[in-house]
């Protein structure tokens, strides 16, 4: 099964691309890390209680006020609803938590690291479960939409990674604010900038992604050259309109299909040793390319 990592920065268009990939003609299954992260902090979960314990005392608006009960829920009705689960607590106020953790200051970076440590293990477990489900169903490929794909190391498991990026940073902020307004949010330009700065620059992610197409650590005959190898790291520049984005996604998927045809995933599924060897080789290549990229970046920084 082909693991297709999909990443980018906030509001660069990952969800728009994943919507294209999950609908015809691609119709791929999707594992959405943002969605799993939301489920991981629903009232009653372990992560929910950990967040309240750590952030609660210093964040007065951490929990949402529950809306008043609808008129139908009269006291006499409640007598007959013993089988309903007891409320597990008020939902988290995500906007307030976002204000706590997104930004450049040391305090925010520390808080973000704490939040990641609380949520990411649950997201990882849920992702592995979802992957297993896709595997036993014999899926040819699955899209992993993970905003922090490189930061969390999930890129190492992916045969192909697609970064959705924009060249113009102002366009990213504009789209983020427009989406927030359309959803009735009240994000300020300052908050939008802080969110963007809480992740790697998306152009750096694009560079990192292209580094997967052979960073020069393997001899040429092992690394492969040209065409198919380019499908290990692909960048979609999303500065144009949605029609252009759809066309770009089509081109990217043509490359991915040429690299990993369906028959190959059947061989890997039906002959487990072949599947295991292919996955191990993938992992080794991704680790080597990642290290080579880190080393190159350190050397470039040292030159400055
Ligand atoms: C802070 C929270 C509550 C804010 O919620 P909100 O609904 O406003 O944003 P949402 O979850 O939709 O995320 C929007 C985007 O923000 C970016 N983002 C989210 N979490 C992080 C993070 N820890 N670090 C950097 N960027 C992040 C991603 O690009 C994401 O797509 C939420 O983002 C969260 O719980 N983050 C921690 C979990 C996480 O790392 N999620 C990313 C996928 S694993
Ligand atoms: N090519 C495009 N033209 C116009 N608007 C676009 C384009 N691509 C994305 N958008 C809009 O930009 C906003 C952000 O896109 P999207 O939600 O797909 O980003 P995202 O990377 O998934 O964000 P997040 O990291 O917050 O999940 C959305 O309102 C979307 O409709």
From TrEMBL:
Keyword Signal appears in the UniProt entry: no
Positions of region (Disordered): 65-97
UniProtKB keywords: ATP-binding, Membrane, Nucleotide-binding, Transmembrane, Transmembrane helix
Alphabetized Gene3D superfamilies for the sequence: P-loop containing nucleotide triphosphate hydrolases
InterPro entries: Depp_CoAkinase, P-loop_NTPase
Native source species: Endocarpon pusillum
Lyase is among the record's keywords: no
Protein name: Dephospho-CoA kinase
PROSITE patterns for this protein: DPCK
CDD domains: DPCK
GO molecular function: ATP binding; dephospho-CoA kinase activity
Cited Pfam families: CoaE
Signal sequence coordinates: none
């Amino acid at each position: 099964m082909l693991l297709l990592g999909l990443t980018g920065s906030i509001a660069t268009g990952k969800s728009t691309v994943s919507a294209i990939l999950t609908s015809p003609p691609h119709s791929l299954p999707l594992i959405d890390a943002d969605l799993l992260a939301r489920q991981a902090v629903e009232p009653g979960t372990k992560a929910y209680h950990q967040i309240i314990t750590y952030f609660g005392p210093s964040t007065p608006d951490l929990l949402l006020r529950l809306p008043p009960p609808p008129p139908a829920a009269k006291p006499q009705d409640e007598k007959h609803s013993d089988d309903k689960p007891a409320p597990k607590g008020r939902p988290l106020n995500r906007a307030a938590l976002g204000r706590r953790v997104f930004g450049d200051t040391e305090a925010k970076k520390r808080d973000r690291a704490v939040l990641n440590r609380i949520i990411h293990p649950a997201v990882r477990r849920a992702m592995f479960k979802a992957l297993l489900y896709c595997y036993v169903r014999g899926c040819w490929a699955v899209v992993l939409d993970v905003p922090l794909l490189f930061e969390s190391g999930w890129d190492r498991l992916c045969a192909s990674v697609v970064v959705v990026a924009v060249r113009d940073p102002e366009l990213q902020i504009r789209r983020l604010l427009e989406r927030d307004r359309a959803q009735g949010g009240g994000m300020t330009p300052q908050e939008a900038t802080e969110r963007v700065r809480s992740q790697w620059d998306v152009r750096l992610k694009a560079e990192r992604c292209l580094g997967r197409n052979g960073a020069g650590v393997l001899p040429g005959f092992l690394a492969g050259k040209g065409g198919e190898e380019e499908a290990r790291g692909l960048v979609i520049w999303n500065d144009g309109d949605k029609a252009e984005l759809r066309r770009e996604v089509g081109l990217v998927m043509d490359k991915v299909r040429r690299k990993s045809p369906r028959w190959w995933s059947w061989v890997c599924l039906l002959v487990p040793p072949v599947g295991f060897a292919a996955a191990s080789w993938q992992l080794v290549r991704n680790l080597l390319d990642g290290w080579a990229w880190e080393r190159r970046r350190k050397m470039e920084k040292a030159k400055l």
